[in-house]
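sorry for the late reply, my laptop died twice this morning and i had to redo everyting from scratch. anyway the thing you sent over, i finally got around to it. pasting the sequence first so we're on the same page, its 122 residues, then the predicted structure underneath. double check i copied it right bc i was rushing
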Amino acid sequence: MTDEVDLAFGESERIPAVAQDADSGEVLMLAYVTSEAVERTRETGLAHYYSRSREELWQKGASSGHVQEVEEIRVDCDGDALLYLVDQEGGACHTGYESCFYRTIDGETVGERVFDPDEVYE
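ok and here's the structure:
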């Protein structure tokens, strides 16, 4: 049985979306989405998010080539958070790491750097 889920975007018109590697289960990043970002993700199969700092829709990997192919979108019980199960090309983090969660709270680097951001971003 399938019933489309209503998403609870609320006053901010944004909800958080966690990107998780569909194969390994590693959490790659957290970003925010609008209804337009979700719609674009579903249309293209590529992860789209909303940049709060730039106040614009963006496709993950549009400038770096490190796209996220979305295999499945899951919704939490309240409809106010999403989980993107993705196939990540390259690194998910703009700092060059495989995951944005590459440090412990004590500052220890525990993740793997997979690209040099100076060579990818202008």
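Residues 71 and 102 are 23 Å apart (CA to CA).
thats about all i looked at so far, will dig more tmrw
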